[in-house]
Design a protein that fits this description.
heterodimer; A: 320 residues; mainly alpha; ABC transporter involved in vitamin B12 uptake, BtuC; two-stranded antiparallel sheet; 12 helices; B: mainly alpha
Chain lengths: 320, 348
């Protein structure tokens, strides 16, 4: 039993660290898709966030000192939010196919980031950052037996922020007038329009929020996991966040739960060789788990996962 | 302005806009766009070797583009070309390595294996879409990652913990001494003929067969097709099967022609995603795909010359390609612009 607990003490913190960037990004996805705009571009927005986060951190470490990683996250949020405007303009105003526009965002994100890295550093990846996201021991809670060391000892500040954002997102989407408008625009834009809601404005805001959150997700991932930026820094995390959003049924808290679970699968995959009863499970099964589960969830085997009704359709005033 | 002309102008304008914005990016970043594009041009057409390599690069792009376009015609968005390509690559490499057969059997068998693997990978989202109405976009994205990890694991098993499969036997190879010598010993192989044959196959299925008529009908209007007595389910499954087979063959180009084996991969090849761009640019027609693939294959290969000849990072071409996709996708606004211009002319 003691051995089992030791494994949990080891693996749960890693899971949470892996989950945090997914939580931010998946909730970004929730905002965009709840408003009716598919956002396949989360991966590219995360790449942009990771890139900006790392480069900003490297350039301004002397100026901001210990605050650097947080300011970097803020910078990443802003840049990714602006970058997501491209997706918003294309899919809301220009009536582009939202999936195609998202694919373009993904290709563009990694291309711009690598182009800039080569331009600035003359090589394929950046240097390593010195100012990392700090870890905290949460007072009192860390003293709780069993749970304390698992969840509340040396957690990244960003993980705490992720949970806070998830709760905040739930409040905004389900308890505020803006949230109601957001959801109505995604379900039945014509009805919303008749009630005086500016459909396209809400959608723009939602896509920009998703860009900002994905940017935070990317910056958090880069500043906790890799500490530099290269071509493989963000390698599917955006799509995994998309999966978490669907698995969580387009609900912020659900998305957080799914992200935590996917983080757990990733943590198991990288550390399974060190765990006695996991040694014989090929790690490939753990790697594909999040993706396979998403397909199963979509197929309706774990309760039906239905997206917002008007998703993918540009709103054209006066059309039926 | 006629509709037909606009349909041709939209991709052309998108390409020009993409190249222009690319030039602006180079200018802003302190590079010389003229030198950059000259280096790109020379990288594509500079000598016989470059031309050979460019054509070699175009072959998988044609097949990936066909895969996306074929599914599009039935109203399906196959983002899973990347994964179908990866399993096709592995299947071809495996058959090429594991069996010893005369060439006349071995090479077709390896190609068939790749097509079958891709088709199976496409079948799963097709089945889910047809029977449970699960959106194919998300399923195919997830299938991409599953393909990547499963194939990586299989390669490790085959190579006893190593990172690449053994080379295929010559009897399964698409390599051609003739084509290679013709192009100053480039790696150009017979794959381009396989790709062009498939262009014909797609045209034949869509334009000359009952199956193609039904597939297109479902793409135009599912309900109308249903009321006319066609099975929507069957057609969705068929479309994904055939689309996956094209994608699998794109993988065979890499396995049997360019590389002769398969290594574990840290990420995707990118060919599958570029296939979306190829199909879009080619308006989802077989011939259009050839043009789209020629453009993107050339850009991708020619870009290799840019760091050396003009000191510009190779990624500028990826930026240009992404921008072209973006502009083609936003075709609506280009159409509106064109119609305004033509209306003004008429008024005069």
């Amino acid at each position: 039993m003691g051995g089992f607990l030791d494994i949990l003490y080891f693996i749960v913190p890693i899971s949470i660290a892996y989950a945090a960037p997914l939580i931010f990004t998946a909730i970004g996805g929730v905002f965009s898709e709840r408003s009716g705009v598919i956002n396949i571009g989360l991966e590219g927005l995360m790449v942009m966030g990771a890139f900006v986060g790392i480069v900003f951190n490297l350039f301004f470490a002397d100026t901001f000192g210990a605050w650097t990683p947080w300011v970097s996250i803020l910078a990443a949020m802003l840049v990714s939010a602006v970058f997501s405007l491209m997706h918003a303009v294309a899919s809301i105003s220009f009536r582009a196919d939202q999936v195609v526009s998202g694919v373009a965002i993904n290709l563009l994100g990694i291309a711009i980031a690598l182009f800039s890295v080569k331009m600035i550093y003359g090589k394929g990846q950046t240097d390593f950052i010195q100012e990392k996201i700090p870890r905290f021991n949460i007072p009192f809670l860390q003293d709780i037996p069993v749970i304390g060391p698992m969840f509340f000892k040396s957690v990244y500040g960003s993980s705490i922020l992720a949970v806070a954002i998830a709760i905040l997102a739930w409040f905004i989407i389900f308890k505020t007038p803006f949230g109601l408008r957001l959801r109505s625009v995604g379900e039945h834009p014509m009805a919303a329009d008749t009630m005086g809601i500016k459909v396209n404005r809400i959608r723009y805001i939602a896509v920009i929020i998703s860009g900002g959150l994905a940017g935070i997700g990317g910056a958090v991932y880069a500043q906790t996991m890799t500490n530099d930026f290269g071509h493989a820094t963000i390698n599917g995390q955006g799509f995994m966040a998309l999966a978490a959003m669907i698995f969580g049924k387009w609900h912020p808290i659900g998305a957080m739960g799914a992200a935590l679970f996917f983080g757990f699968a990733q943590a198991l995959a990288i550390s399974s060789s060190g765990i006695p009863f996991m040694q014989n499970v090929p790690s490939v099964f753990l790697y594909i788990l999040p993706y396979a589960l998403t397909i199963i969830a979509l197929a309706g085997f774990i309760g039906k996962a239905n997206g917002p009704k008007a998703i993918g359709d540009p709103y054209i005033k006066g059309s039926r | 302005m006629s509709n037909r002309l606009i349909n041709v102008l939209v991709p052309v304008i998108s390409i020009i806009l993409g190249l222009l914005v690319g030039a602006v990016v180079m200018l802003v970043s302190g590079y010389d766009p003229v030198a950059g594009y000259i280096a790109l041009w020379n990288g594509i057409f500079g000598d016989a070797y470059a031309i050979g390599e460019t054509i070699r690069q175009i072959s998988p792009y044609i097949l990936a583009g066909l895969a996306v376009a074929f599914a599009f015609r039935t109203g399906l968005f196959n983002i899973g070309v990347e994964g179908q390509l990866i399993v096709g690559w592995f299947a071809a490499a495996y058959v090429g390595m594991a069996f010893e057969l005369p060439k006349i059997i071995h090479l077709p068998l390896a190609l068939l294996a790749a097509a079958a693997a891709g088709a199976i990978w496409g079948l799963i989202p097709g089945l889910l879409k047809a029977t449970l109405k699960v959106h194919e976009v998300i399923v195919t994205i997830m299938m991409n990652y599953i393909a990547l990890y499963v194939v990586n694991a299989l390669i490790k098993v085959l190579a006893n913990g190593g990172f690449k499969t053994e080379k295929i036997h010559d009897t399964a190879s698409l390599r051609s001494d003739f084509l290679s010598e013709l192009t100053d010993y480039s790696t150009l192989h017979y794959g381009i003929f396989v790709a062009l044959l498939m262009v014909f196959v797609m045209w034949f299925i869509l334009e000359k067969m009952k199956l193609g008529y039904e597939l297109k009908s479902v793409g135009f209007n599912e309900n109308a097709a249903q009321y006319a007595g066609m099975s929507v389910k069957k057609n969705i499954i068929m479309a994904m099967l055939i689309s996956g087979a094209f994608a699998g063959l794109a993988g065979a180009m890499e396995a049997l022609g360019t590389f002769g084996n398969m290594s574990t991969r840290a990420g995707f090849t990118g060919i599958g995603f570029d296939g979306i761009a190829v199909a879009l640019l080619g308006a989802n027609t077989p011939l259009g795909v050839v043009f789209g693939a020629s453009l993107f294959g050339s850009l991708k290969y020619g870009a290799n010359n840019m760091p050396n000849a003009a000191n510009i990072p190779i990624e500028i071409v990826s930026i240009v390609i992404a921008l072209i996709i973006f502009f083609v996708a936003s075709g609506y606004i280009i159409r509106v612009g064109l119609q305004r211009i033509s209306k003004k002319k008429e008024a005069k």
